UniProtKB/TrEMBL annotation:
Gene Ontology MF terms: RNA binding
GO CC term, one of those recorded: Cajal body
Claim: Transferase is one of the keywords in the record: no
GO BP terms in the entry: Cajal body organization
Pfam family, one: WD40
Protein name as it appears in the record: WD repeat-containing protein 79
Signal peptide as annotated in the record: none
Lineage: Eukaryota, Metazoa, Ecdysozoa, Arthropoda, Hexapoda
Family from the record: Belongs to the TCAB1 family.
Intervals holding WD repeats: 242-277, 297-329
Length: 405
C-alpha cells in the first residue's frame, strides 16, 4: 500500500524481509477483576532520573513505544502467545521485557506519535514521529531504529524551533506540530522546511486529530484553553474554544465517533468530557489524582466504551463512558508505587500498558523528617481479560481454608 509516510521513508532494500502480520484474535476488555501483570521492564534511578514518559501501543498492536528521560526511545514487542489466548492463569510467570529497537536520542523528548496506517506486514508504514529539545521533528524506522527524515520548523528570525507536540492527521498525510506561537502543518511525504503556519494565541502544549472527522483537530494550550479547528484547503478554521481547566492541557482523546472530547490538565484533578455537538459546556467531569505538572495520560478503548486514566498516586482508574447517567469509577487499581504517567489500551487484545516514574526533588539531609521518595521507573503490560485459577493452587487454598492443609 502506497502511503505518504512510505514516500518520505527510505525504500527498503531487496534483502529486507517483510514480516508477516500475526493472526489476531479480537477479545473484549473485562474490568470486573484487577489486572494480572504479564510483563515488565525496569530502569534504575540514576542521578539524572531515568523516569518514563508515557507509552503507546502501535496501531496494529504488535509493539509498544515508550520514552525514558535520558535513555532514549524504546520499542517492545508483544509476546507472541498473547495474540491468540482467550484466558490466562493467575499464576502465570511475569515476562521480562527487552527492547526490540532502541534509539538513543540525545536531549529531552517532548512528544511522539505512531504513524496511523502502521502495518507490520508493510515495513514502509512502520515508523513514528518524535519532537525534542533544540531539534527538528524526526521520523524513525520502527524495524531498524534508523532516522528516515526530518521536518524543520523555523521562527520569525529563521532559527530552528522545537515542536512542543506532534501528531499525524487521521489519514497520515499531514503532520500537525505545536509551537510557542503557531501550529505548523507538514506534508508527511515532503520532509524538510516546507509547511503551512497557523498563528495561535497561546503556546501549544498538546494536539490530537479526530479519526471520525478528517481535518478536525483539537489544540490544547498552556493557558488551559482548547481550540477546536478544522483543516480545509491548507488552512485552519476555528470552530470553538473550550474553557474549563485550571492548568495547561496535557492530554486529550477524541471518542470513536468524534462526538466527544476528553481532556486533562497539569495540576488539575478534573477530567472533562466535552459534548462537541453542543460545545462550550462540559458534559461531565471525572475525578483523578494529578497533583504535579507531569503529563498524566488518558486513553479510550477501541470499542468507545472504556476511558482509562493514570494518576500521580500510582492508581489506574477505569470508567464506563457508555452509561447514560453520570459515569462513576468502574474499577480502580493500585498498579504502581510511583506516579503512573502513561496508560495505553491495546487495539484488539484485553491488554493494558502502563508506565511509571516522575522527577523527584533531591533529599535535603538536614531535614530528616522529609520522606524518602519511591522510585519506580517501569513499563508494564497487564491482562484485563478472563482469568483462570490454577487447579493446584485452588486446591491448596481450599484445603487451607478448611483447616486441613
Amino acid at each position: 500500500m502506497e502511503t505518504a509516510a512510505a514516500a518520505a521513508a527510505e525504500q527498503p532494500s531487496e534483502s529486507e524481509v517483510y514480516i508477516e502480520a500475526p493472526q489476531v484474535n479480537y477479545a473484549p476488555y473485562n474490568f470486573d477483576k484487577t489486572a494480572l501483570e504479564l510483563a515488565r521492564a525496569q530502569w534504575a534511578n540514576y542521578a539524572d532520573q531515568h523516569y518514563l514518559k508515557n507509552c503507546k501501543w502501535s496501531p496494529d498492536g504488535t509493539c509498544l513505544l515508550t520514552v525514558i528521560r535520558g535513555g532514549g526511545m524504546n520499542v517492545f514487542e508483544l509476546p507472541s502467545e498473547l495474540y491468540t489466548c482467550d484466558t490466562l492463569l493467575q499464576t502465570r510467570t511475569i515476562d521480562a521485557l527487552t527492547p526490540a529497537v532502541s534509539v538513543q536520542e540525545t536531549g529531552l523528548i517532548y512528544d511522539y506519535d505512531w504513524y496511523p496506517g502502521m502495518n507490520s506486514a508493510n515495513a514502509a508504514t512502520c515508523c513514528w514521529l518524535s519532537s525534542g529539545h533544540e531539534g527538528p521533528i524526526h521520523l524513525w524506522d520502527a524495524f531498524t531504529g534508523d532516522l528516515r527524515c526530518s521536518y524543520r520548523g523555523y521562527n520569525a528570525v529563521d532559527e530552528l524551533e522545537s515542536a512542543m507536540c506532534v501528531t499525524f492527521s487521521a489519514d497520515g498525510q499531514n503532520i500537525f506540530s505545536g509551537y510557542k506561537k503557531n501550529v505548523k502543518i507538514f506534508d508527511t511525504g515532503r520532509p524538510g522546511r516546507e509547511y503551512t503556519e497557523i498563528p495561535i494565541t497561546h503556546q501549544v502544549s498538546t494536539i490530537v486529530a479526530s479519526k471520525a472527522q478528517p481535518g478536525v483537530v483539537a489544540i490544547g494550550t498552556v493557558k488551559g484553553v482548547i481550540e477546536l479547528v478544522s483543516q480545509t484547503d491548507g488552512t485552519l478554521r476555528n470552530l470553538c474554544k473550550l474553557k474549563g481547566h485550571k492548568g495547561g492541557i496535557t492530554s486529550m482523546a477524541f471518542s470513536l465517533d468524534g462526538s466527544r472530547l476528553y481532556s486533562g490538565a497539569r495540576k488539575d484533578k478534573d477530567l472533562i468530557c466535552w459534548d462537541l455537538r453542543v460545545p462550550g459546556r462540559p458534559m461531565f467531569v471525572l475525578p483523578r489524582e494529578c497533583s504535579t505538572n507531569q503529563k498524566i495520560s488518558i486513553d479510550l478503548s477501541s470499542d468507545n466504551k472504556w476511558l482509562v486514566s493514570g494518576g500521580s498516586d500510582g492508581k489506574v482508574q477505569i470508567w464506563d463512558v457508555t452509561e447514560q447517567h453520570y459515569p462513576t469509577v468502574h474499577l480502580q487499581m493500585q498498579l504502581h508505587n510511583d506516579s503512573c504517567n502513561g496508560v495505553s489500551l491495546h487495539p484488539y487484545r484485553p491488554i493494558l500498558a502502563t508506565s511509571s516514574g516522575q522527577h523527584h526533588n533531591s533529599i535535603d539531609p538536614m531535614h530528616h523528617t522529609r520522606s524518602t521518595p519511591v522510585y519506580e521507573n517501569a513499563l508494564c503490560m497487564w491482562w484485563v481479560g478472563p482469568q483462570q485459577e490454577d487447579d493446584l493452587l485452588a486446591t491448596i487454598i481450599k484445603a487451607a481454608t478448611n483447616g486441613t492443609a
